[in-house]
Design brief:
Peripla_BP_I; binds beta-D-fucofuranose; LacI family transcription regulator; six-stranded parallel beta sheet; alpha/beta; elongated; Rossmann fold
Length: 326
């Protein structure tokens, strides 16, 4: 708990300092000579349905906002993100935005951007840093809350259990902000009932194949799994395949709670294979473009911008599915 609090405080402090401190001098033209803003964006990769929707949202929003977007896909590797950011600095873009694959190890490159006077916006995922004034704001969901909602559903679902309830957890990418925070939010919530036990937890790297593989191993090692907590839809969908291949019924013999609420996840929930879904909205593009324009024009923005999410049970997922945008 202390660790989380420290992380939250240090993020908040870094943000406040960035917002109020001696950040890069604003450009009076709000962008390049023609007034067109240039943004360098480093994306994590294409590991999940969520990520694909996030990329499309950013690319579409850049077009709509007349932002010249230099988009770079890091293929899941931090070193690729660092080189992309260095190349954006060299190209002297107006603003850099990125979704950091992991939380640590960014200080050097963030300080380089700061020295070059280029503002940085974190989108989707946060970083751990004690350096002041190295990013302006962090736009993204409250991952601890998402994990908590998933855990609270398990608490309710098994409220009348008299014996142990065996939970397995499919973790996201090791060291990533959502994996760390969803794990802690979930753990915090299930403490409410001592019968609830996470008997195995391993990373499936936020991919469908990763989720399937880890679930296959879990099923072999533990014949008595009651619940799967999949930290994203794709790993949950992989788990469905593994459970069905083992001759069990996902959603009935083994309950599944997942996070993201992409169309595929909503479909699995409407079909009765997932039991509960926590949303994480990937459509960050339009807000990111607005923030970028403000930052480059020298206007102040809040150091932390939380995107709102909701939850879906099976009936709610079936009702929401026809209008789902991602
Ligand atoms: O939940 C997962 C993706 O960072 C919120 O990354 C994002 C997570 C999302 O791969 O599907």
């Amino acid at each position: 708990m202390n660790k989380i609090l420290t992380a939250v405080l240090s993020i908040a402090t870094a943000g406040v300092l960035a917002a109020c401190g001696s950040g890069p001098a604003p450009r009076s033209d709000g962008g390049d000579a023609g007034g067109r803003l240039t943004m360098g964006f480093s994306q994590v990769g294409a590991e999940s349905g969520w990520r694909t929707a996030n990329t499309t949202s950013i690319q579409d929003a850049a077009k709509a906002a007349d932002v010249d977007l230099k988009f770079s896909d890091a293929n899941g590797k931090q070193e690729n993100q660092i080189s992309a950011i260095r190349s954006f600095i060299q190209q002297r873009v107006d603003v850099i935005a990125f979704s950091p694959v992991v939380r640590t190890g960014w200080d050097a490159v963030l300080l380089e951007a700061k020295a070059a006077g280029i503002p940085v916006i974190l989108t989707d995922r946060a970083v751990d840093t004690t350096e002041p004034d190295v990013y302006v704001t962090f736009l993204g969901a409250d991952f601890v809350q998402e994990g908590r909602w998933a855990g609270e559903w398990v608490v309710k679902e098994f409220a009348s259990a008299t014996g142990p309830v065996n939970i397995v957890q499919l973790e996201g990418t090791t060291g990533s902000d959502p994996a760390l925070e969803r794990t802690s939010g979930f753990a915090e919530a299930i403490k409410a009932n001592p019968n609830l036990k996470v008997i195995a937890s391993q990373t499936g790297d936020f991919t469908r194949s990763g989720g399937k593989q880890v679930m296959e191993a879990f099923l072999k090692a533990h014949p008595d799994i009651d619940v799967v907590f999949a930290q994203n839809d794709d790993m949950g969908l992989g788990a469905i395949e593994a459970i069905e291949a083992a001759g069990k019924k996902p959603g009935e013999d083994i309950k599944i709670v997942a996070i993201d609420a992409t169309r595929d996840g909503m479909q699995a929930t409407a079909d009765g294979k997932f039991n509960f879904l926590v949303e994480c909205n990937p459509l960050l593009g339009p807000e990111l473009m607005d923030i970028a324009k403000k930052v480059v024009a020298g206007e102040s923005v809040p150091p932390r911008i939380v995107t709102p999410d909701e939850t879906f049970d099976q009936a709610q997922a079936a009702a929401a599915l026809p209008d789902r945008k991602y």
